[in-house]
Amino acid sequence: MNKRYKIIDLSNKISPDMPSYPSLPPFRIENLRTTARNGTTVSIITSMHTHLGTHIDFPLHVIPGSKSLDDYTVEDLSGDGVVIDLTPKGEGEEITEKDLEKYSDHINDGDIVFIFTGWSKIRDNTSTYLFRWPHIGESAAHYLAKRKIKILGIDVLSVGGWGGKVAVKGPLPKIPSRKIHEMLFNAGMLVVEEVANLDKVLKGKKVAKGFFLIAPLLIKAVEASPCRVFFIPSDL
Ligand SMILES: [Zn+2]
């Protein structure tokens, strides 16, 4: 065992029955060849949208002609930062500037910031998880932009709230998800959604500092990709 550092995996496992963004098709994988029949096993992913599970969004997601995945280096997708505890957050609740300001002394300008809403603890194919997650509001987006945050991560399906056609109980987000994405991208931020294991990082504390590494597949000219996310805590 390596005692110099510890690495925590902040990624969700991908499988056909996993919860995923409700308006997009489910993940599908099958065998193209099997060892018994063909001598080797080879799988083929027959359906995988780019916002599946733990994934990273790039500006091209909402801004036509802007930067895509392969415009970013490994350095762009890694760096120092902080995990902050915003639990308990309720169904469809907005995350505000006030929520983030509580942590202003712990956040350095230019940091990577990951938000633990607690939603990852109820991750399942329920309407609460799939439609009523807490989301970034306009004031929080302004605050993150002001602090020049490099990458924002969150343990819910999207940084913006659900605004799709399926009717859900409760108020819709005050501001469309697309607009929140646009505000963050225009501020030079990237976005990582549906991150896992932030509770293991925090271990009951309110803040944890460390180094993040986000590793999407290097797909040409895409607006997003599923990714592995690794966190190396500063305190051993
Ligand atoms: Zn996304």
Key terms:
236 residues; alpha/beta; Glucose Oxidase, domain 1; seven-stranded mixed β-barrel; 6 helices; binds zinc ion
Query: Which fold name is given in CATH as the topology?
Result: Glucose Oxidase, domain 1
Q: Compute the separation of the termini in Å.
A: 13 Å
Mean pLDDT, all residues = 95
Main sheet specs: 7 strands, mixed, barrel
| CATH C-level name | Alpha Beta
Description:
With 236 residues, the protein is of the alpha/beta class. The chain has a single domain (8-233), classed as Putative cyclase (Glucose Oxidase, domain 1, 3-Layer(bba) Sandwich), CATH 3.50.30.50. 16% of the residues lie in helices and 26% in strands. It contains 6 helices and 12 strands. The protein has helices spanning 35-38, 97-101, 127-131, 138-146, 177-186, 198-202, and strands spanning 8-9, 28-33, 42-47, 55-57, 78-85, 94-95, 112-116, 135-136, 151-154, 190-193, 207-216, 224-233. Strands 4-10-9-7-5-11-12 form a 7-stranded mixed beta barrel. It has a two-stranded antiparallel ribbon with strand order 2-3. Strand 11 (207-216) and strand 12 form a beta hairpin. The mean pLDDT is 95. The structure holds zinc ion.
Give a summary of the structure in a few sentences.
It contains six helices and twelve strands. With 236 residues, it is α/β, with parallel strands linked by helices. The protein has one domain (8-233): Putative cyclase (Glucose Oxidase, domain 1, 3-Layer(bba) Sandwich).
